[in-house]
């Protein structure tokens, strides 16, 4: 049985489910969670932090693991960053018996070249790297999560071994592939807001507007907009009554 670490806090409906991006943990949402003033559910995705790995990673298997771990049956507003944004759209499809009232998909990479896919596959196939010192592992965690210089490392993202330190991240997660964004948007059974930081190199606003003319560009922000300016992202959630 898979075990998924779920942070919960607050009260009020609809609850907000916050899904982090590849390489990070739910800790990246702490500044935003404090601004919401309602019930929040913040998991570490499978293969991240203190959550168990999966035998196989795809958007579907990860979304199914999330659905199994969700408490109750009430409506959820789901905000997801990068990989988490794709998973939010998966959950909104109706295939997982989750009542999704709205989706904020932030910083989703929508254009993938063959080189992009090849690099991701290479990362997925790499053995776990063990670092001599914790400081080296911290730097690796911050780089892979895109948090270098903007947030501290979550201790749950690191593990001590007999030989040193490693990331908690399960490398095969990199093999999830490219999302079919047009299909995900077409099957979503709720309102969806696409957004990205104005300077996000992975999810350029112009690319998002080709999918949705109303996609939001967050001025002056990069890929981890929810960490750089939680209030700006919180403002987008008011569109769903949050």
UniProtKB/TrEMBL annotation:
Swiss-Prot/TrEMBL keywords: Hydrolase
Q: What is this protein called?
A: Alpha/beta hydrolase
Please spell out the taxonomic lineage of the organism that makes this protein: Bacteria, Bacillati, Actinomycetota, Actinomycetes, Pseudonocardiales
Which residues are in the AB hydrolase-1 domain?
Answer: 16-235
Q: Which Pfam families match?
A: Abhydrolase_6 (PF12697)
A GO biological process held by the record: acylglycerol catabolic process
Which species?
A: Amycolatopsis suaedae
Q: Does the keyword Hydrolase apply?
A: yes
**Gene Ontology terms, cellular component aspect?**
membrane
Gene Ontology MF annotations: monoacylglycerol lipase activity
Q: Which InterPro entries match?
A: AB_hydrolase_1 (IPR000073), AB_hydrolase_fold (IPR029058), AB_hydrolase_sf (IPR050266)
Q: Which domain of life is it from?
A: Bacteria
